[in-house]
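TA notes, week 10

Several of you asked for a full example with nothing omitted. So below is the full record: structure tokens for the whole chain, then the designed sequence directly under it. When grading your own attempts, check the secondary structure regions first.
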């Protein structure tokens, strides 16, 4: 990884940023020596000295400014087209995750529901469902996800996936967790079970399970599973850059 580029993005530890910088997922664009963007999936992170051209080139619906200067430039460039909202960065608990607590969520699944790893039998089904597409959608196809991705789904009686937790992004040593539940199966504990199972698998493999919460509901679920709030931060939703993004409601 280029040291100068890494320094520009030093304020973000999110695995999706690290994956872009390492060149394993997403893309990075530089503007001179002091400005850059890192883009992956629905996200574009802007770092260094604010440059209007990079804001205009950003093609993701969620823009994350690296400074107040970037935030002002986004608002000035996109005006009414950019709506600010608050996301929440989290961190692992100082004492580590409680495996016993995580197991309690996987064991609390309602009768008839089962957890399964995401393999070939589920990949295309998830990609065809709007609510589930982000679970695998940042990878370069089925083989890429099966090689580098990681995730679990819940089914009822072995049928279609009803909820899932998977790696939105991945690089050596860490993943960014994505959790989604089919709207008519929310508030049954399915998201908690999937998330807990994925975190347990990451711990077993020596992988850090990063969690960047989209809203307070996602933060509540993260805290339920053991994460702690690191800091809230402002991002911008750009409707004109929407690419099939499905606004989720995380389970509490």
């Amino acid at each position: 990884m280029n040291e100068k580029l890494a320094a520009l993005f030093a304020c973000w530890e999110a695995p999706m940023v690290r994956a872009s910088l390492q060149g394993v997922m997403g893309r990075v664009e530089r503007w001179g020596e002091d400005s850059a963007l890192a883009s992956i999936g629905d996200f574009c992170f802007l770092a260094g000295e604010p440059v209007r051209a990079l804001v205009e080139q950003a093609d993701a619906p969620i823009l994350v400014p690296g400074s107040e200067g970037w935030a002002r430039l986004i608002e000035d460039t996109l005006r009414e087209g950019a709506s600010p909202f608050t996301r929440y960065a989290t961190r692992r608990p100082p004492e580590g995750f409680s495996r016993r607590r995580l197991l309690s969520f996987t064991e609390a699944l309602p009768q008839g529901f089962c957890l399964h790893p995401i393999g070939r039998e589920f990949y295309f089904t998830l990609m065809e469902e709007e609510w589930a597409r982000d679970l695998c959608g940042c990878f370069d196809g089925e083989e890429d996800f099966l090689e580098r991705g990681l995730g679990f789904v819940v089914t009822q009686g072995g049928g279609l996936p009803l909820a899932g937790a998977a790696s939105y992004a991945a690089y050596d040593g860490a993943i960014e967790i994505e959790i989604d539940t089919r709207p008519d199966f929310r508030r049954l504990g399915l998201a908690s079970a999937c998330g807990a199972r994925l975190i347990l698998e990451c711990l077993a493999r020596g992988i850090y399970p990063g969690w960047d919460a989209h809203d307070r509901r996602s933060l509540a679920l993260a805290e339920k599973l053991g994460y702690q709030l690191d800091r809230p931060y402002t991002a911008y939703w750009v409707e004109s850059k929407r690419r099939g993004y499905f606004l989720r409601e995380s389970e509490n």
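Residues 244-252 have pLDDT under 50 and may be disordered. Use that as a sanity check on your answer.
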